[in-house]
């Protein structure tokens, strides 16, 4: 059974480093819930990882040890977040990173979720191949996506990723005549070789008609 690509939860983590396998933890989660392409709810929270974060991460994210001192624990926040994302598919920019941290944090509290992930970065590489870069900030400028100039904070990044996701879905509609893309289509598209994208979407659009 297919699910609509316009109804998803777009999420972003800020973390203490690159790998939960090396002991890194989440320090902030931000997420936007889209229904039929409209933002209907948001989730944001800092979370205390239980240890001091490095000066590099403080400077990179703007999140200080002082801010985290009174934040709820990762376990408390992720318990609430795991309930919030049930029955929704998930989107993130460079999704493998966010999925690693989501899985690791939920494993710690023995929680699960029942959606699957799609990656706006991989989708962008297929649908906007002329973009000079597929980093989030560069794509925001390339597509003239409205933003408040804040990057590397979870909710701000989730907000612009949600806007980018809608730009990509609109590209499917306007350039490839795919009017109601399924989430599963985006997942397949993200694994399609770049040179084969037009042919893949032409065949898909033909089955829709």
Automatic annotation (TrEMBL):
It holds the Pfam family RNase_T. The keyword Nuclease applies. It comes from Vibrio qingdaonensis. This is DNA-directed DNA polymerase. DNA polymerase III contains a core (composed of alpha, epsilon and theta chains) that associates with a tau subunit. This core dimerizes to form the POLIII' complex. PolIII' associates with the gamma complex (composed of gamma, delta, delta', psi and chi chains) and with the beta chain to form the complete DNA polymerase III complex. Residues 7-174 form the Exonuclease domain. GO terms for biological process: DNA replication proofreading. The keyword Ligase does not apply. It is an enzyme of class 2 (transferase). It catalyses: DNA(n) + a 2'-deoxyribonucleoside 5'-triphosphate = DNA(n+1) + diphosphate.
């Amino acid at each position: 059974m297919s699910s609509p690509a316009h109804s998803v939860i777009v999420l972003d983590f800020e973390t203490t480093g690159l790998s939960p396998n090396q002991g890194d933890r989440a320090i902030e989660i931000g997420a936007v819930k889209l229904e039929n392409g409209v933002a209907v709810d948001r989730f944001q929270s800092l979370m205390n990882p239980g240890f001091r974060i490095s000066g590099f991460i403080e400077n990179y994210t703007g999140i200080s040890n002082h801010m985290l001192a009174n934040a709820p624990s990762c376990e408390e926040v992720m318990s609430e977040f795991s309930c919030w994302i049930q029955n929704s598919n998930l989107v993130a920019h460079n999704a493998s990173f966010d999925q690693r941290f989501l899985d690791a944090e939920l494993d710690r509290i023995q929680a699960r979720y029942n959606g699957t992930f799609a990656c706006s970065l991989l989708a962008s590489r297929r649908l906007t191949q002329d973009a000079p870069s597929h980093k989030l900030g560069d794509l925001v400028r390339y597509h003239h996506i409205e933003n408040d100039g804040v990057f590397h904070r979870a909710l701000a990044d989730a907000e612009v990723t949600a806007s980018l996701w809608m730009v990509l879905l609109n590209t499917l509609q306007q350039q490839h005549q795919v009017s109601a893309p399924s989430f599963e289509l985006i997942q397949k598209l993200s694994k399609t070789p770049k040179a084969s994208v037009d042919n893949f979407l032409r065949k898909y659009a033909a089955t829709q008609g």
